[in-house]
User: Fold this.
Amino acid sequence: MRELGVKRVLFLVHRGQLARQTKKSYERVFEKSVSMGLVCGGYREYNADYVFATVQTLNRDEHLLQYNKNAFDCIILDEAHHVTADTYQKIMKHFEPKLWLGMTATPDKRDDNIAGKNVYELFNYQIAYEIRLRQAMEDKLLCPFHYFGITDLSIIGDDKAEHDFSIL
Assistant:
C-alpha cells in the first residue's frame, strides 16, 4: 500500500471477528505508521487511515454517510463473490476509490441480484492474481483435505432440532 501511495483504505469483511483479526495483522505490518480503526459492532472509528468494517454495519446510512465518495484511496472487498448482492452494491455505488480490490476463493459463486452481472464484470475482468486449487496444493500453499460422508444420523438423536453434531 505504501508503494502505491495509498493513504486511506477501507477493508470490508462479513464478520466483526474477521475485521478485528485483519486489523491486528495490518498493525503488525504497518506498526504505527498509519492509524487503524474498526467500524463494526460497537466500534465507530470512522477517521482512521485504515478502516476495517463489516458490510452489515457500513451498509446502514448512519455509518455509510459518515464518508464522502472519495474518502478512501483503496477499498478491499473480502468474499468479493458477494459484490452483486444489494448490500455490497449500495456500498460500491457510494464510493469512488482509485482502486477496488476484490478477494475471493470462489469467483464463480455469486449473488444474482444484478441481472447479467458477475464478479468478473464488476471488476472489469481485471484479475491481479489467480491460482487454482490443484496448483495451490502442488505449491504447498494449502494443507491436504479429506471428505467424509455421514450416512447414519441416528447416533446423534432422533429429533432433527436436537442433533448434536459435535459427537461426530
In short: The mean pLDDT is 87. Residues 16-30 form the longest helix (15 residues). Helices lie at 16-30, 55-58, 61-64, 86-94, 119-122, 133-138. Residues 9-131 form a domain with the Rossmann fold fold (CATH 3.40.50.300).
